[in-house]
């Protein structure tokens, strides 16, 4: 199945919807989906972004800017995950609670704007990892057109590049809560430590960054090709000093580098069924 065939399938499927509310984070997938949907349906599309403590300010600003550039109606809602019962305790199905809250609020927005369907940016590759949020999407009848068109992350990046979208090579992003090990309580302070730490590393020139919060320990993940930057003693000292000032006692580098869902590596198959 060629990439052009998949793109045409995506457009045809969106065209059948007549109107749509996009769960829009400003990431690679939702930006691509928003652009295609807006091209196909015009002003029958709205973008809905949830602003919360798990969503970095830089991501929100980028999402807002792109929505303004293409002229789509952009609605911002407040979704404070820490207030959701069961979320802050950080169970293995944490994402289910978050997504259910998000899609419920987007459904209300869609109804107010006479929009028929809610769309999210889940792609084919997302089915290969542990994604409890997909269950919430199924329950609330959220449509995942990228997945339905068999579009992988690589396909979406390639198509985004050909369409001139600057997000084509944007690093993958997940909410800040995903940096905290399952079973460890999620707090506002932890989220702030993570956000500031990651922004500091991005400002130093790193492209793909995760700062995993293991209590007193910060476990830094960067893309494999960027690991050699840590060979600089001066840079290591600068990073260690900054993160210790934020509250970490120990600052470590994950030798394996960044990989999607590293916090899921400790889960058993039974835990993934919860």
UniProtKB/TrEMBL annotation:
Where does the NAD/GMP synthase domain lie?
Answer: 7-77
State a single Pfam family of this protein: NAD_synthase
Instruction: Tell me the PANTHER family matching this sequence.
Output: EXSB FAMILY PROTEIN, NAD_GMP SYNTHASE DOMAIN-CONTAINING PROTEIN
**Any one GO biological process:** purine nucleotide metabolic process
Name the residues annotated as catalytic in the UniProt entry. 175
Originating organism: Clostridium pasteurianum DSM 525 = ATCC 6013
InterPro entries found in the cross-reference section: LarE (IPR005232), NAD/GMP_synthase (IPR022310), Ni-pincer_cofactor_biosynth (IPR052188), Rossmann-like_a/b/a_fold (IPR014729)
Q: How is this protein named in the record? A: TIGR00268 family protein
What molecular function terms (GO) are annotated for this protein? sulfurtransferase activity
